[in-house]
Design a protein that fits this description.
Largest interface: A-B, 60 and 60 residues
Strand content of chain C: 25-35%
Radius of gyration of chain B: 28 Å
Strand order of the largest sheet of chain C: 4-5-10-6-7
CATH class of the largest domain in chain C: Alpha Beta
Number of helices of chain B: 20
Number of strands of chain B: 29
Largest sheet of chain B: 7 strands, mixed
CATH topology of the largest domain in chain B: Aldehyde Oxidoreductase, domain 4
Number of helices of chain C: 11
Radius of gyration of chain C: 19 Å
CATH architecture of the largest domain in chain B: 2-Layer Sandwich
Shape of chain B: globular
Number of strands of chain C: 14
Shape of chain C: globular
Distance between the termini of chain B: 68 Å
Number of domains of chain B: 3
Structural class of chain C: alpha+beta
CATH superfamily of the largest domain in chain B: Aldehyde oxidase/xanthine dehydrogenase, molybdopterin binding domain
Helix content of chain C: 25-40%
Largest sheet of chain C: 5 strands, antiparallel
CATH class of the largest domain in chain B: Alpha Beta
Distance between the termini of chain C: 46 Å
Oligomer: heterotrimer
CATH topology of the largest domain in chain C: Uridine Diphospho-n-acetylenolpyruvylglucosamine Reductase, domain 3
Helix content of chain B: 25-40%
């Protein structure tokens, strides 16, 4: 038996209700990955710089590595697993696929969710606005070129 | 062979799982009863290790085991070393080489901050880290050597005392007659350039999960590695198990870039713990660990001289080169000789003399990272060429036009060996054409015309050029096994490992064409040692050529078998049988077509009859390339400098390149973009910084600056194609190319922008602080 | 990297918060936005024994304007304040857009950044520029600390260990005021190497009031008072701006670090001050937009 303080967390993730007992020092990112088996949210730095852990909290992008799981009690989250509608990909996912907007895929979930929030607030962003919006998501593979094209393509209709 | 897929911009088939968050990276691997490892890493750059007391750590709740060297002594074998000179190279160049053994755990001394001292295994990573903090170590700090130039000199603190020196690799090499050329020259340009220590920094760090099956004595390990077979070989030696009892699986990798293509202590420590504890053990590297223990790279000084005629013809080159390898010389002659082999690049320079000193210092050890010596050497060369141009008042384009090797001089023999020991002969390419293409695409002429007017208005813009020739697709081999199943569908297994390059698509394209099946019928498995017994891995821009050629060879063999079996089934001659779109048919008789599944099934013996042929539709091929094949490119950068702050804005970046025949153009373009982005990082932002005590000052991503989307423009690419004669695909490697020229092109552009201030760029990264100091010095 | 163990409490009222602070003092840390604290916890650079999560205390996220003062509750997120300020207080909005990235600002609080007192952060300088203050609560009651008295050193404020900030207050300048924020950062969203915030109010073509605050130019954010005195009452002219910029950096002692030596910060502070003043004056002439 381990003597670490724990709390119960009840939250919605991608529309589904979850209840778990969690150690208070566990990050939201680790909680999603370990306790809910939602491994699409990635951990790249644990100091809030790389953006790979980005999820939507009440629809707004946040760094899940900088939130304690217990802080999400009562909250509603969207992770990358919540983007597709069954077999049908979200238009952003489709656009990334069509435009080669990913290579290793590690930064992709964070960028997809950041882009989703961007397009909801600003449906027709300029290239500069897109680059600024994703400037908090580091990618080492793509040079961002096709990522920006994918987001523009998703914004077009 | 139908070329239905080869050359097509096929959408990547692996993307859906990545887009849905359903990929499986090493940290996504979960096994029942899994434990977590954390490491105590040396806080000292150089210190003697005394007692290691682990009792308090072992008492932390949740901790299962704590190991230091003494606890695992029986299993402490030296980590693998690479980079012995192949015979052809050793015959031509006299290398002084020293490689010291490194053990997975420090035995009596730590030689860099980050070197592993002890391992803790616990039920959670957090509790393992709690325990790591409770390990007590008696350290005796020792003198530290951190400067690469003084490390080579007498009196510097020694990293490996038994060497009596810090020189890990030393050699001289000369071609032609440098002394006469320098004496005859109208002008000599000499300059010293510093290329900083910078690294791959994949967004996913390293990691390993290991599980031991005591029933059959098999170890399975998932390892975020680019070189599964190397890891397997290392484990086989360390654990004293035959290779087939060790399965190394490279899962999805979140980037590699060479950082994950080296041999590491954790590769063996995690399996050791799993075997000792008879429970699965996972270790996932965190970013701070990564900064201090994943391989470092670059870090060279070039004191270069060019001897030239007044008209800009370069007669000879001398270069004295230092390389800081960190504490262990893991890679032997690879980085040093790579540097030298790529120095001349596209330039016709008949005489060259180099002196190379690669030293050890008390820093994290180096391994090849995207470019592996080429970015550094191209920086020295292209900067020297620009400085020479300035000295002679010749335009940087004109001097390159004069000195670039012409198409009619190809194949061009540099009269020295390549790193693989074979003669360094450029096979195909047209460097002047690539140069002109880049100049056209970047609007060089218009830029020059507008530049003076802008300067008069206080807008300082510059344009810079860099060109390289890159030996790609180094051998000795890669392997592939191709099999067909009952449904006629195809499995391709190879030792190549994808870390974002899209192998599941591009290799499927090669196989589908070779076999005549739909693309969707092909599944590609990479980096699983159980799927293919011998392999090398993905690095050095090699897999499209080496794995691609093996896949082509093996698939061709399988096709022959299928054709023979189909011929029996269709009662025709094999020469009259084709396979198209997954069907076997007699040529010219479409009605005869049968699905491949039928062909396969017809070969399976029944009670009543043997099959129409043996159901052996499997082949393996280990394509041996004769030597590397030479890709080339010219990059052009346009910048604007704010002379009040030193801030550089990258306005445009253009790449014109040749990588031979292309399997998938969109994947190729993505690779160029990614390479350029890392090159820009090296040019302007990234640096691993140590203080005088060998403490790593850049410990997080707040200090190590990876370029973001606002730091990069669109990357404009022009493709030229000069097929390679050295492999059946006609392809050349391209994974690294993008990263080679940016530091040189950008430095040349910045210096061009700041010409009115008389600025000379001698070091990278060109940070605003450095540039402003140069500008202010130029203004006084 | 995982945090060292800690006890976690999430009180529902300010009174409970101050009780925890009174009881634990230096051993407790308030968790508001978490964008500064969580990295430090993860890196084990901070090891409080108790984390006091402020986020469940109601009524702390208000953003209200009254009698020329902007009252921002301790839990108001940077992004929320950015949205409020974009049409109403563009100086603050512009500064907020330089703070990290959207994901950081969605959680980070204005009060948190001020209390964290990073010498390179924008918001402490903005608090100085806008004649601001914080309101701190403890068991002993409430007190207001004006910006000038708040910042003691790098990451150090005059707040006691038993005090928690419940509100920040900002003096709203007249709408016709000219403003500018200029900073030099390695990458967009990074901490500034050095930066300047400027506010200028003109009256009949002369400078009636001016505020200049610098960040990244020393151990704390500072007002450039010598420059302000030189400008007060004067008619704007290029030579005057240059002189003000020179005065602004005259007594500064910036820090040298990995990213820039002190000399660089000094030089760029001067350049950016001149540019910020020119911007602010241009905006003031156009009526503040």
């Amino acid at each position: 038996m381990i003597h670490e303080p724990i709390r119960t967390v009840r939250l919605h993730v991608n529309g589904a209700k979850h209840e778990r007992s969690v150690e208070v020092r566990k990050s939201l990112a680790d909680f999603l990955r370990d306790d809910l088996d939602l491994t699409g949210t990635h951990v790249g730095c644990e100091h809030g710089v790389c953006g790979a852990c980005t999820v939507l909290l009440e629809g707004e992008p946040v760094r899940s590595c900088l939130l304690l799981a217990v802080q999400a009690d009562g909250a509603s989250l969207t992770t990358v697993e919540g983007l597709a509608d069954g077999e049908r990909l979200h238009p952003l996912q489709q656009a990334f696929w069509d435009h080669h907007g990913l290579q290793c895929g590690f930064c992709t979930p964070g960028i997809l969710l950041t882009a989703k929030a961007l397009l909801e607030e600003n449906p027709h962003p300029s290239e500069e606005e897109i680059r600024e919006a994703i400037s908090g998501n580091l990618c080492r593979c793509t040079g961002y070129h096709f990522i920006v094209e994918a987001i523009r393509a998703a914004a077009r209709p | 062979m139908g070329a239905k897929y080869f050359g097509a911009a096929v959408k990547r088939r692996e993307d859906p799982r990545f887009l849905r968050g359903e990929a499986r990276y090493v940290d996504d691997v979960k096994l029942p009863a899994m434990l977590h490892a954390a490491f105590l890493r040396s806080p000292h750059a150089h210190a003697r290790l005394g007692a290691v007391r682990t009792e308090a750590a072992a008492r932390v709740p949740g901790v299962v085991a704590v190991y230091s060297f003494g606890d695992l002594e029986r299993w402490m074998k030296p980590l693998p070393l690479f980079g012995a000179p192949p015979p052809g190279l050793a015959a031509a160049v006299k290398f002084e080489i020293r490689q010291a053994q490194q053990f997975p755990l420090c035995r009596e001394r730590a030689r860099y901050v980050g070197e592993i001292v002890a391992m803790v295994v616990a039920d959670t990573r957090a509790r393992a880290e709690d325990a790591v903090e409770r390990i007590e170590v008696d350290w005796e700090p020792l003198p530290v050597c951190v400067d690469l130039v003084s490390a080579a000199e007498a009196g510097a603190p020694l990293v490996h005392e038994e060497w009596g020196t810090n020189l890990a690799v030393g050699f001289r090499h000369a071609v032609g007659d440098v002394a006469t050329a320098f004496a005859a020259a109208d002008t000599v340009m000499g300059e010293t350039f510093h290329i900083q220590r910078y690294v791959g920094m994949p967004i996913e760090g390293r990691g390993a999960v290991a599980v031991w099956d005591r029933r059959d004595g098999t170890l399975t390990t998932w390892n975020s590695t680019q070189v599964s077979h190397f890891v397997q070989q290392g484990l086989s030696a360390a654990l004293e198990l035959p290779p087939h009892k060790i399965r190394v699986i490279a899962p999805d990798l979140g980037g590699g870039f060479g950082t994950k293509a080296s041999g590491y202590a954790e590769d063996v420590l995690v399996p050791l713990a799993a075997i000792r504890l008879n429970r699965p053990v996972k270790w996932t590297e965190d970013r701070r660990e990564h900064m201090m223990s994943a391989a470092h790279a670059r870090h060279q000084v070039h004191a270069i001289e060019l001897a030239a005629r007044r008209d800009g013809t370069i007669l000879a080159l001398r270069d004295r080169i230092w390389l800081d390898l960190g504490a262990y010389n893991v890679w032997g002659i690879v980085l040093p000789y790579n540097t030298v082999a790529h120095l001349l690049g596209p330039h016709r320079i008949p005489s060259m003399a180099v002196e190379f000193q690669a030293v050890v210092t008390h820093k994290t050890p180096n391994a090849p990272y995207r470019g592996a010596g080429r970015p550094e050497t191209v920086f020295a060369m292209d900067r020297a060429v620009d400085r020479l141009a300035r000295q002679l008042a010749i335009d940087p384009v004109e001097i390159r036009r004069k000195n670039y090797i012409r198409a009619d001089e190809m194949p061009y023999d540099l009269r020295m060996p390549y790193r693989d020991g074979n003669p360094l002969v450029y096979d195909t390419g047209d460097f002047p054409a690539v140069l002109e293409s880049a100049l056209r695409a970047s609007g060089y002429e218009e830029f020059r015309r507008a530049q003076a007017g802008l300067r008069a208005r206080g807008v300082y813009r510059g344009i810079g050029i860099s060109g390289y020739v890159e030996g790609t697709a180094i051998g000795p081999f890669e392997g592939a096994t191709v099999k067909v199943d009952l449904a006629g569908h195809v499995i391709v297994a190879t030792g190549a490992v994808s870390s974002g390059q899209g192998h599941e698509t591009s290799f499927a394209q090669v196989a589908a064409d070779a076999l005549g099946v739909p693309l969707d019928w092909v599944t590609v498995i990479g980096g699983d040692t159980a799927a293919v017994p011998f392999g090398v891995g993905t690095f050095a821009s090699r897999s499209a050529v080496t794995a691609g050629s093996s896949i082509h060879d093996a698939a061709t063999q399988v096709k022959e078998k299928l054709v023979k079996a189909a011929a029996n089934l269709l009662e025709a001659a094999p020469a009259d049988v084709d396979i198209e779109d997954g069907q076997a048919l007699v040529r010219g008789a479409p009605a005869s077509a049968v699905p491949l599944a039928r062909v396969v099934q017809a070969c399976i013996p029944t009670f009543a009859r043997p099959g129409v042929a043996s159901p052996d539709f499997e082949a393996s091929a280990y394509h041996h390339v004769p030597t590397v094949t030479y890709a080339s490119a010219v990059h052009v950068a346009q910048v604007e400098v704010d002379v009040g702050t030193g801030h550089v804005k990258l306005l445009r970046y253009v790449v014109s390149h040749d990588c031979g025949k292309v399997i998938n153009p969109i994947i190729v373009e993505g690779q160029v973009h990614g390479g350029v982005a890392q090159g820009v990082g090296g040019a302007m932002f990234e640096e691993m910084v140590y203080d005088d005590e060998g403490q790593l000052l850049t410990g997080t991503l707040m200090d190590y600056l990876v370029p973001t989307a606002t730091d990069l423009p669109r990357i404009e690419t022009v493709h030229l194609e000069y097929p390679s004669p050295r492999n059946p695909l006609g392809a050349k490697g391209l994974g690294e190319g993008g990263a080679i020229s940016p530091p040189a092109a950008i430095a040349n552009a910045v210096e061009d922008a700041l010409a009115p201030f008389g600025v000379t760029i001698r070091e990278t990264p060109e940070s605003p602080a450095r540039l402003l100091a140069l500008i202010e010095a130029g203004t006084t | 990297m995982k945090p060292a163990p800690f006890a976690y409490v999430d009180p529902r009222s300010i009174d409970e918060v101050v009780e925890h602070l009174a009881r634990h003092g230096e051993d407790a840390k308030i968790l508001a936005g978490g964008q500064s604290l969580m990295p430090m916890l993860n890196l084990r650079l901070a090891r409080p024994s108790v984390i006091v999560d402020l986020n469940r205390v109601g009524g702390l996220d208000s953003i209200t304007e009254r009698d020329g003062v902007l009252f921002v509750g301790a839990l108001a997120r940077q992004r929320a304040v950015e949205r409020w300020a974009t049409p109403r207080l563009p100086l603050l909005a512009a500064a907020l857009r330089l703070v990290g990235h959207t994901a950081i600002r969605n959680r980070g609080t204005v009060a948190g950044s001020i209390v964290h007192a990073d010498p390179a952060a924008e918001l402490p300088a903005l608090l100085l520029c806008l004649d601001g203050a914080v309101v701190a609560r403890s068991r002993a009651g409430e007190r207001q600390i004006i910006a000038r008295d708040l910042f003691h050193g790098p990451l150090m404020t005059s707040l006691r260990a038993d005090e928690g900030v419940v509100e920040t207050r900002w003096t709203l300048p007249p709408t016709a005021a000219g403003w500018s924020v200029r900073e030099m950062a390695r990458r967009h969203g990074d901490f500034a190497l050095v930066g300047v915030a400027a506010l200028v109010i003109l009256a009949r073509g002369a400078i009636a009031r001016v505020r200049i605050a610098l960040f990244g130019a020393g151990p704390v954010a500072v007002r450039a008072e010598a420059a302000e005195h030189a400008l007060a009452g004067q008619t704007p002219k290029p030579a005057l701006i240059e002189e003000a910029a020179r005065l602004a950096v005259e007594r500064l002692e910036p820090m040298s670090d990995l990213h820039a030596p002190a000399a660089y910060r000094l030089s760029v502070a001067r350049t950016l001050t001149a540019r910020a003043l020119a911007d602010a004056l241009a905006r003031a002439s156009e009526g503040g937009h």
